[in-house]
Amino acid sequence: MEDAEGRDPSRVDVVVRVNGDEHALSVDPRTTLLDLLREKLAVTGPKKGCDHGQCGACTVLLDGRRVLSCLALTVAVQDRAVVTVEGLGGDVAERLRREFVRHDGFQCGFCTPGQLCSAVGLLDEIERGVPSARTENLEAVPVLDGGEIRERMSGNLCRCGAYANIVRAIAAARG
């Protein structure tokens, strides 16, 4: 059913920027960012693991911050920058990719896109001095040791159990 102006009232017009490209779409207001990415835009890096925000396989960066795309509604990310694993660029992302390979952090690869996006966000948080639940001195720059990496990556699960390798890869990428 359409309104007087010929629009479907059950849909919302949105503009979403994904990996630098702007997309103007009409979506059901209940559409998650993950479903938009995978089903409408054919961006398949973020994976639908649990679809409940528990596994982290769908992690993307929203304005540079880590977000579980299965919990984010598309209407809430309008006019914001979404970066998926396909759009990660720069020295940090390249170092992370290289170290994930070198330290065998990929395993089956299902969780890897979310792990990489989360690791980029983690390293940015450290650079900005953002504390975690593990950070003892909230006034000091957090120390990036294995425990800090594990705490910050705890929202990203790996079915293969490659956690030790992922922690080593992130630590090596930081230098």
UniProtKB/TrEMBL annotation:
The keyword Iron-sulfur applies. Pfam families: Fer2, Fer2_2. SUPFAM superfamilies: 2Fe-2S ferredoxin-like (SSF54292), CO dehydrogenase ISP C-domain like (SSF47741). InterPro entries: 2Fe-2S-bd, 2Fe-2S-bd_dom_sf, 2Fe-2S_ferredoxin-like_sf, 2Fe-2S_ferredoxin-type, 2Fe2S_fd_BS, Aldehyde_Oxdr_Iron-Sulfur, Beta-grasp_dom_sf. Pathway: Alkaloid degradation; nicotine degradation. PROSITE patterns: 2FE2S_FER_1, 2FE2S_FER_2. Keywords: 2Fe-2S, Iron, Iron-sulfur, Metal-binding, Oxidoreductase. One of its GO terms (molecular function) is oxidoreductase activity, acting on the aldehyde or oxo group of donors. It comes from the Bacteria. The keyword Iron-sulfur applies. This is 2Fe-2S iron-sulfur cluster binding domain-containing protein. It comes from Nonomuraea diastatica. The lineage of its organism: Bacteria, Bacillati, Actinomycetota, Actinomycetes, Streptosporangiales.
